[in-house]
Write a structure and sequence with these properties.
It is a single chain. The chain is α/β, with parallel strands linked by helices and 562 residues long. The protein has 3 domains: 352 residues, Alpha-Beta Barrel (TIM Barrel); 52 residues, Oligo-1,6-glucosidase, Domain 2 (Oligo-1,6-glucosidase, domain 2, Alpha-Beta Complex); 74 residues, Sandwich (Immunoglobulin-like). 27% of the residues lie in helices and 16% in strands. It contains 16 helices and 20 strands. The strands form 5 sheets. Strands 11-10-9-5-2-1-13-12 form an 8-stranded parallel β-sheet, covered by helices on one side. Helix 8 links the parallel strand 10 and strand 11. 51% of the residues are buried. Bound molecules: alpha-D-glucopyranose and calcium ion. The site of calcium ion (CA) has 6 residues, from loops.
Length: 562
């Protein structure tokens, strides 16, 4: 296995809007991120991934970009970005930026031109089709509800939008579009960025014929996935991008790849390095979905979770590289989802157990802001408390069609809405959590009184310090980065346990991911050893152990030198 800095790194995702407001307008900004660099340095992360801060109407919080080379004024100016990069680099922290090139905002000058006339030079920058029988070109539904096509009166044709109708999809078949994207990427590389997180990059190549898709369950629309996800030319495009830009720098590149399979990942993120360095898969996040997409209160089944994550560990070994994550700006908080946030004790204990379980695996771990504090889902009372376009559209579609009762849908939003990840970072226990002096753009969780960075920094056994130690361990032990993986006790419904092996060392990881006691048989070579890390401070590793609720530990065994 080849060694690489990005395999040894831990990444921290910042959602600038919700991280730190520096000027009292209620919206987080780039100077706010810069001000908090010492906090991230103390945590010990190697890389910051910044969600979009580009010029944007902000209808999908910046994932709708109208100028790729400018900063949205509410986030600051280019000088603020340059200062952030310089100060991060001075602290040894790299900066990865979000690349959103499956689509632009409808306000992007390319699209403003494109929609003007059928023979505009920018027409082919986007995907236009004639309607069929007075309706859209095919039955595809968008990821944000409704049809994936929108009729544009000016020219009488429809444009494709796999997300919101304000996010027209770029036409990657057009070499001029690809050239624009590569030039823009190069521009950011020359500004000093250390990599890209590539938004829905698995969707950039569309099957040109665009036939109807199979009916989406619980929807009147069809799925575009067979013709869009991992489309016919996606690998060709990424190899081209790699030749034109990526290979000229030393970058971390992570593709957000919905619909990713192990086999596909071995192409996107192969060890040969012809495309990206790694990819995000979604299989483990999809395990608690329902009849209508993700809208459900269902809990993940631990055996399924173990099977899924282990399949990725085995499948990519020596062939590609895993990205490890529980949280991001699109997912509810893991402690409210897989853990137990009902009491302070279970909240901290379960957050630590989940962190340990993920961070001891092979791959590059990603921490989403606030995860290191065990921040919980938001405190959303009514529909007015939500901001996210996906949530609001889904509410309208599913309750409007009578498929779900408003109260039922609200309960799903409270549990699964992307806004759960987007409530402001809880820096301290004051009324506005140290996030802003003004009115925050989305409600702050009142539990900031108990759950906040200031309190946890001062308390050695906090979740913050647990994450800090997990990161330090990864930096200290190659086995955590490069060791092979083997799942133990696949049938156990409470414990997630596995073995890592590397150059004569063995690392045993045992995590009780339940609130009940769980018996475990520990091999003699590990018994009596002091754990590297554990969620209880008095864990004694012994043969017939009974793990307490959310008790988890990692224990290392080194073979005696020959
Ligand atoms: C990705 C982003 C998400 C965004 C969508 C459209 O899934 O993570 O936040 O809404 O793409 O850009
Ligand atoms: Ca601000």
């Amino acid at each position: 296995m080849k060694k690489a800095w990005w395999k040894e790194a831990v990444v921290y995702q910042v959602y600038p809007r919700s991280f730190q407001d520096s000027n009292g307008d209620g919206v987080g900004d780039l100077p706010g991120v810069t001000a908090r660099l010492p906090y991230l340095q103390q945590l010990g992360v190697d890389v910051i991934w910044l969600s979009p801060f580009y010029r944007s109407p902000g209808r999908d919080n910046g994932y709708d970009i109208s100028d790729y080379r400018a900063i949205q004024p509410e986030f600051g100016a280019l000088e603020d970005f340059d200062r952030l990069v310089a100060q991060a680099h001075a602290l040894g922290i790299k900066i990865v930026i979000d690349l959103v090139v499956n689509h632009t905002s409808q306000e992007h000058p390319w699209f403003r031109e494109s929609r003007k006339s059928r023979d505009n030079p920018y027409r082919d920058y986007y995907i236009w089709r004639d309607g069929v029988n007075g309706g859209p070109p095919n039955n595809w539904g968008s990821n944000f509800s409704g049809s994936a096509w929108k009729l544009d009166e000016a020219t009488g044709q429809y444009y494709l939008h796999t997300f919101g109708d304000f996010q027209p999809d770029l036409n990657w078949e057009n070499p001029a579009v690809r050239r624009e994207v590569y030039d823009m990427m190069d521009w950011w590389c020359r500004r000093g960025v250390d990599g890209f997180r590539m938004d829905v990059i698995s969707m950039i190549s569309k099957t040109p014929e665009m036939p109807d898709g199979p009916r989406n369950p619980g929807s009147s629309y069809g799925s575009f996935a067979p013709y869009v996800v991992n489309g016919p030319r996606v690998h060709e495009f990424l190899r081209e991008m790699n030749r034109e830009v990526l290979s000229r720098y030393d970058l971390l590149t992570v593709g957000e790849c919905s619909g990713l399979t192990v086999e596909q990942a071995c192409r996107y993120a192969s060890e040969e390095g012809t495309e990206l360095t790694m990819a995000f898969q979604f299989e483990h996040m999809d395990l608690d979905g329902g009849e209508s997409f993700k809208w459900s209160l269902r809990r993940m089944d631990l055996r399924e979770l173990k099977e899924t994550l282990s399949r990725w560990q085995y499948g990519l070994e020596g062939r590609a590289w895993n990205s490890l994550y529980w949280c991001n700006h699109d997912q509810p908080r893991i402690v409210s989802r897989l853990g137990d946030d009902s009491t302070p004790e279970s909240r901290e204990r379960s957050a630590k157990a989940l962190a340990l379980c993920l961070h001891m695996m092979q791959g590059t771990p990603y921490i989403y802001q606030g995860e290191e504090l065990a921040m919980t889902n938001g405190d959303f009372r009514s529909l007015e408390d939500f901001r996210d376009v996906e949530s609001l559209n889904a509410y309208r579609e599913l309750t409007g069609s009578g498929r779900l009762e408003p109260e039922e849908m609200l309960s799903y939003l409270r549990y699964k809405s992307r806004d759960n990840a987007r409530t402001p970072m809880q820096w301290d226990g004051s009324e506005r959590a140290g996030f802003t002096q003004g009115t925050p753009w989305i409600g702050i969780n009142p539990n900031c009184r108990e759950i906040n960075a200031a309190e946890q920094l001062a308390r050695p056994d906090s979740v913050f310090h647990f994450y800090r130690r997990l990161i330090a361990l990864r930096h200290a032990h190659e086995i955590i980065v490069y060791g092979s993986y083997q799942l133990l006790w696949p049938e156990d419904g409470q414990i997630f346990a596995y073995l890592r092996q590397w150059e004569g060392q063995r690392l045993l990881v045992v995590c009780n991911l339940s609130g009940q006691c769980a018996p475990a048989e520990i091999g003699p070579e590990f018994c009596g050893r002091e754990p590297l890390i554990a969620t209880y401070d008095d864990t004694a590793v012994g043969p017939g152990m009974t793990l307490r609720p959310w008790e988890a530990f990692a224990v290392l065994q080194e073979e005696a030198a020959q």
